[in-house]
Amino acid sequence: MATGTSTTRAPRLFAALEWNRGGAEGRAERRRVRRGRFMAANDEPVAVFLIGIRVNRWRSVRGWLPVFLAMPGMIKELRADQDSGFLGYRMLLGPSFGEATVIQYWRKAGDIRAYAAESARRHRPAQSAYWRRYFASNGAVGIWHEMYSVRAGAYHGLYGDMPPMGVGALFGLEPAVPGEKGGYQPSTEPIFAAQVTEDRPPSKT
User: What are phi and psi of 144, to 5 degrees?
Assistant: First the structure.
């Protein structure tokens, strides 16, 4: 039963390659292109967790399939838990065939560690199962991860004619103009301010 459930969750993860807890609006609104130049609000800390998989030998299905099927269950578990600290994710395929990376956004690094260590959650049993299979699989699948903990104000996101994504989708967008000392800064210029909520440039007078 558990395997069947995991098997059905995996295609769903690939069908929905991104998700975030950043707002109540529908998918169509989240994907709407914002005309203009914007920057992500950065007054909240964030932890970014990258986790990836690489299939090294496709014939060793027993080596890589359980690893592949474990991630959708963890994502579903985290999405359902408002208090987990999990804010969103985005999946990237490639650059080589058989490689995939999930970019996860968390409230803080401590939330990531707490989830990974809790035996009642899906990660700990999946990790234990992976290491039990590790030597038997003889390198059939590779995994990797990186974690970055970033304080408020120490990250930057810029978007031009794009829907909100990454930290911009999580924390909101502000109109942006070039800064006096390089980079960009928030702006209240009418042409940009109007485009925060409008999907078209203001009419010329």
Answer: -155, 160
Instruction: Report helix, strand and coil shares of the chain as percent, to nearest 5.
Output: 35, 30, 35
Do 114 and 47 contact (CB within 8 A), yes or no? no
- Burial (Cβ within 10 Å: 0-12, 13-18, ≥19) of residue 112: buried
What's the rounded Cα separation, in Å, for the pair 80 and 48?
Answer: 19
CA distance 151 to 43: 9
CA 119 to chain centre: 23
CB 6, CB 70: distance < 8 Å: yes
Average pLDDT of the chain to the nearest whole number: 82
Helix axes 109-117, 123-137, angle to 10 degrees: 70
Residues 117-129 pLDDT 10s:
888 788 877 777 7
Altogether, the residues listed in the chain come to a count of 205
pTM of structure: 0.81
